[in-house]
């Protein structure tokens, strides 16, 4: 721990150096002799630091008090840096301005989001919303004013971004209502005011770095055990979302490491070979839900007589901070198709079989469900191992294989 004499007698050197106190507080001595109080901390997986003033104007006791206040904010789930920004903004403007409330909302929620998602939100607000609405009292913002800011985004052709900005603004208004600084969410008045986003394929992440981030987020998911298991198995199985959530224990043979069921879309039999990673998850889950019919029962039916809601997994992805344009449960199929082909180099017909797509032989006849089963078992294990490598942060080198 530092003492006042140590701080006072610290001499400058050719390079800046630090004198450590306790609980991440330190005094940074600059080459010009200036001495700055700093605190290092981590928030949302990212290392940050705070400045507490200049010594001796800010003494050791005062610096420690500021450090303790920052640590209390961290314990309460708030980023002290973002909170300070909001407080500074409050000193030069109305404490209930849109930007002040928005930064407070962001600081309260950022820890529960994937870092990249949080960064996109704050950049979107700083670039597209704060310049036009930031200094306005949040109570005085009406639907036309909000629409005016969104129109600026739309006019540059970024319709999807405009919709996401509207969604964020709605979240901020609802936070303002909860904290007594607004009466209603005026974003609801803009339903249908923006042109619709053109439809496309189901969203999916396919870049290895993005996949690793998604898998780690799933492992850290704080929801129910059943939903977490479903999220972990979704990329391993890459079946259609309805088939996953309605999976029944009677169709699983854990000894044979197979899941055999009828594809609802085509009314055809299908086999999903179970990699060792999938078996481990299923064996643990069986202790919790094996007494009922469904592998992933609804939280409202403890006896397992009903499957989980069709929005349960999608809602979990949103709570983890993944936008609907980033990934969906159905997107795991596109993820598997892309990487199994372009990275792991498996034959396209093996992949199509495993996706339960119609695959025909040279005579035009549909293959039966056991076609290439041995090769598909190897493929599913390689796929699970690859995902584990990505999640662990390994440098996975793309390669092509034959056969």
Structure write-up:
This protein is α+β, with helices and mostly antiparallel strands and 403 residues long. It folds into three domains: 73 residues, Double Stranded RNA Binding Domain (2-Layer Sandwich); 96 residues, Tyrosine recombinase, N-terminal domain (DNA polymerase, domain 1); 184 residues, hpI Integrase, Chain A (Orthogonal Bundle), CATH 1.10.443. The strands form two sheets. It has a four-stranded antiparallel beta sheet with strand order 1-2-3-4, with helices on one face. Helix 4 runs antiparallel to helix 5, helix 5 crosses helix 6 and helix 9 packs antiparallel against helix 11. The protein is globular, with a radius of gyration of 27 Å. The protein starts with a helix and ends in a 12-residue tail after the last helix. The C terminus is likely disordered.
Sum this structure up briefly.
The chain is an alpha+beta fold and 403 residues long. The chain has 15 helices and 7 strands.
SSE blueprint:
Blueprint: H1 4-9, E1 17-20, E2 25-29, E3 35-43, E4 46-55, H2 60-75, H3 80-92, H4 98-109, H5 115-133, H6 143-155, H7 159-178, H8 208-219, H9 225-237, H10 241-245, E5 252-253, E6 258-263, E7 268-273, H11 276-289, H12 312-319, H13 331-342, H14 348-354, H15 373-391
Helix pairs in contact: 3-4, 4-5, 4-7, 5-6, 6-7, 9-11
């Amino acid at each position: 721990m530092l003492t006042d004499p140590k701080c006072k007698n610290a001499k400058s050197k050719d390079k800046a150096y630090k004198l450590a106190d306790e609980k991440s507080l330190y005094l940074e001595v600059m080459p010009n002799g200036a001495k700055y109080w700093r605190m290092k901390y981590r928030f949302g997986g990212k290392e940050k630091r705070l400045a507490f003033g200049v010594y001796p104007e800010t003494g050791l006791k005062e610096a420690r008090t500021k450090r303790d206040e920052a640590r209390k904010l961290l314990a309460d789930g708030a980023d002290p840096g973002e909170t300070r920004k909001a407080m500074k903004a409050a000193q030069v403007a109305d404490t209930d301005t849109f930007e002040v409330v928005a930064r407070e909302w962001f600081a309260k929620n950022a820890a529960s989001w994937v870092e990249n998602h949080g960064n996109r939100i704050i950049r979107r607000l700083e670039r597209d919303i704060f310049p036009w609405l930031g200094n306005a009292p949040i109570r005085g913002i009406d639907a036309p004013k909000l629409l005016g800011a969104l129109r600026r985004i739309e006019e540059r052709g970024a319709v999807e971004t405009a919709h996401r900005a509207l969604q964020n603004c709605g979240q901020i208004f609802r936070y303002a209502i909860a904290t007594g600084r607004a009466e209603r969410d005026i974003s609801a008045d803009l339903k249908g005011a923006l042109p619709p986003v053109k439809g496309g394929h189901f969203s999916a992440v396919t870049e290895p770095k993005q996949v690793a981030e998604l898998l780690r987020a799933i492992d850290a998911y704080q929801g129910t055990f059943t939903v977490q298991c479903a999220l972990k198995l979704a990329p391993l199985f890459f079946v259609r979302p309805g088939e996953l959530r309605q999976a029944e224990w009677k169709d699983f043979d854990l000894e044979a490491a197979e899941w055999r069921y009828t594809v609802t879309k085509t009314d055809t039999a299908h086999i999903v070979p179970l990699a060792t990673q999938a078996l481990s998850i299923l064996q643990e889950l069986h202790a919790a839900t094996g007494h009922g019919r469904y592998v992933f029962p609804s939280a409202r039916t403890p006896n397992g007589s009903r499957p989980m809601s069709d929005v349960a997994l999608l809602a979990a992805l949103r709570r983890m901070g993944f936008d609907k344009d980033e990934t969906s449960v159905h997107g795991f199929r596109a993820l598997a198709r892309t990487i199994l082909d372009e990275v792991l180099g498996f034959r396209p017909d093996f992949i199509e079989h495993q996706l339960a797509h119609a695959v025909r032989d040279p005579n035009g006849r549909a293959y039966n469900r056991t076609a290439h089963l041995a090769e598909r078992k190897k493929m599913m294990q390689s796929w699970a191992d690859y995902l584990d490598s990505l999640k662990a942060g390994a440098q996975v080198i793309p390669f092509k294989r034959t056969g």
